[in-house]
Specification:
single chain, 363 residues, alpha/beta, Rossmann fold, 2 domains, seven-stranded mixed beta sheet, four-stranded mixed beta sheet, 9 helices
């Protein structure tokens, strides 16, 4: 009995000891869990705070983005409105300019037709009066209108008068005729009754030449050292600059110059023109203005058989500024070697006279 009691006491003490250890272990685990829960709660609270801060920043950014979008939309609307207004003003301006141009062309056409009609009637009247020996129109040698760029026609008139050649007998070949009247070295003689051949490669200038120089032969061809070929002709927007060959130097020199188009055109040569249109007799005046190809054409001309009395030729390179003290020495030397004397230089063109004919006419 006593033994059982002792065993029971031992078992109870061991059970109490284990219960106490288990209780202590449970308490420690519980405290650890509470500590971890507290840390997690702290983390969650911090995360909530961070989330709230981020949400506030997102809201702020969304508001700023909305403001930027509104400002950009207002800017676009304002720009479109201003652009539309400018476009409308430009269209109105273009319409006005187009109307003005159209009206101006109509007035110019009307004025041209009126001028041509009056001029024709005056010519008929003067012819009738001369036939009746009622009216004479003596040429005013020192008081005349010049159509040339630098008075070349006035120089020719004086030289012809001094050599006893009436102006109506001054036949001409104009290689590179350009416009029919303005800056023409041959129109004055056309007015006096002389006739000749005008060669112009630019087809845009042919209608005006045919209208105002109807008494002349008009050829829409390019002069070359070989006839019957096809060459590329470059048309520029400025007067007198269209040409065969490279135009890059002109475009670089003059920003206002623009290449409008390039066309293919047939060639003819000086000798064929003389045979076909002058009955193999050289004209009194040869005007040579072919923008850089003068030497090539001169070298191809039969100046032994077909010798013009006068040759007008450009002697300076293209420039937007006044050119002084410069003259093409190669052209000068070539013509002198062919027995042509430089009679006058206008600062742009030289007027050469055939030495042989000059000696004959003045002897």
């Amino acid at each position: 009995m006593r033994l059982y009691t002792k065993i029971l006491h031992f078992l109870l003490r061991d059970l109490y000891a284990r219960s106490d250890a288990a209780r202590q272990e449970t308490t420690a685990v519980s405290e650890t869990l509470h500590s971890r829960l507290a840390e997690q709660e702290n983390h969650l609270q911090q995360a909530d705070q961070d989330r709230q801060i981020l949400e506030e920043k997102i809201i702020q950014l969304e508001q700023e983005l909305s403001q930027i979008q509104n400002q950009f939309r207002e800017f676009l609307e304002s720009s479109n409105s201003a652009h539309d207004e400018r476009a409308a003003r430009s269209e109105n301006r273009l319409d006005c300019l187009e109307h003005y141009r159209s009206e101006t062309e109509k007035r110019m056409q009307s004025d041209d037709e009126t001028t041509l009609g009056i001029s024709h009637r005056i010519e008929l009247l003067e012819t009738a009066l001369r036939e009746c020996h009622i009216y004479e129109n003596p040429l005013q040698l020192f008081n005349k209108k010049t159509y040339s760029q630098a008075g070349e026609d006035a120089i020719l008139l004086y030289a012809c008068a001094m050599l006893g050649i009436p102006p109506e007998q001054c036949t001409y070949l104009d290689l590179g005729a350009n416009k029919p009247v303005e800056m023409s070295n041959t129109y004055f003689f056309y007015e006096q009754g002389a006739r000749g051949v005008l060669l112009e490669a630019n087809p845009l200038l042919i209608p005006a030449l045919k209208q105002q120089r109807s008494g002349d032969v008009i050829l829409n061809q390019a002069v070359s050292d070989k006839a019957g070929e096809t060459v590329l002709f470059h048309i520029l927007n400025l007067d007198g600059l269209s040409r065969i060959g490279d135009v890059s130097e002109i475009l670089a020199e003059n920003p206002a110059a623009k290449l409008e188009q390039s066309i293919e055109i047939r060639t003819t040569c000086y000798n064929d023109i003389i045979r076909n249109y002058f009955a193999s007799h050289a004209p009194v005046i040869l005007n040579l203005d072919i923008e850089g190809l003068e030497m090539q054409i001169l070298q191809s001309m039969d100046l032994e058989q077909f010798r013009p009395l006068f040759i007008i030729i450009e002697m300076i390179p293209y420039s937007r500024k006044l050119t002084a003290g410069i003259k093409d020495a190669e052209l000068l030397q070539f013509l002198e070697s062919r027995h042509y004397i430089e009679y006058a230089f206008t600062g742009i063109n030289s007027v050469f006279i055939d030495q042989y004919q000059y000696q004959t006419l003045t002897s």
